[in-house]
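job 3f2a | input accepted
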Amino acid sequence: MARYTGAVCKLCRREGMKLYLKGERCYKDKCGFEKKGYPPGQHGQGRKKVSDYGLQLREKQKVKRLYGVLETQFRRYFDKATRMEGITGENLLQLLERRLDNFVYRAGYAGSRKEARQMVRHSHFMVDGRKVNIPSFLVKPGMVVELREKSDSHPRVVECIETAEGRGIPEWISLEKENKKASIHRLPERGDVQYEIQEHLIVELYSK
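job 3f2a | predicted structure (208 res):
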C-alpha cells in the first residue's frame, strides 16, 4: 500500500496548521511548526497571491494529510458523501472521523493517527468481539472497540490512555479507562471536528 514517507513537519508548515502527525512532539516546544510557522522551501516566507483554485486545493490537501488518506481513497469518501442525506462537506468529515484508525486515535489509544493505523494493522483491537485489522473500517453507533487481551498491558498503550483526557476525547466516544474499551454512542457531528477546516472549499473543488 502506498504511503507518505517524507518529513511530516513540512506538511504542517505547508498547510499552515498543526496536523498532529508526530503525536506528543506536536504538543512540545520541539514542534517544527512552532519553530518555523511558515511554508517550507526557498520561497516559503515570500508573499504569494493564491487563486480560488489554490485555496480549494490546499484545503483538500490539508484534510487528506490530517486523516492520512491518499487521493483515490479520499475521492471515494467524497463520492459516498454526495450520496448521503445532508450536507456533503459535513458528511465527508463524518466518514473520515468514523475510520477505525481515527477512532483509535481520538479515543486516546494512540498518540497520532499514524501510530493508531499501525496498531490496527497489527491486530491489537477488536470491534464487537471480533478482530479487525482494517484501518478504513467504519465504526457505527453501538459498536464497542477494545484492546485484545495480549495488548491491553502494552506500556505504550497504557501511557496513551493515561494522557488521553488531557488531549481531549470527543463527546461521541465513551472511554472506559479501566476496561480499556471505548464505545460509540452517536455519529460524529460537525462540532466534534475541532480543526480549522473549510469543507465547502473541497466540495467546490470536486464539483467543477
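job 3f2a | DSSP finds ten helices and five strands in the chain.
job 3f2a | closed
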